[in-house]
Amino acid sequence: SRTVSKAESLINGHPRGVAVALDVSNEAELEALISQTDLAVSMLPYVYHPTVAALCVKHRKHMVTTSYVKEQMQALDGPAKEAGIILLNEIGVDPGIDHM
Asked: Is 94 a catalytic residue?
């Protein structure tokens, strides 16, 4: 979401959900946030997913996105397996419905 209030409404009071304001172009801030999570659910535009995924691999954090797997994401498959994490893409109605 573009605002913390919209993100909070998506969390809907879930006790483990946290809404934060983040400048996604600030990689240090992004890395600090990822390092504190168990799972990154990236709802960012797809162009940011390789950066998020690489940081998840670095910090051994699982990641889920709704976006299609692009070449840059596919390249992280081996490193993710070596790190013992899952980078799960295409989880949503579309592209998810494409796999039914």
From this structure: yes
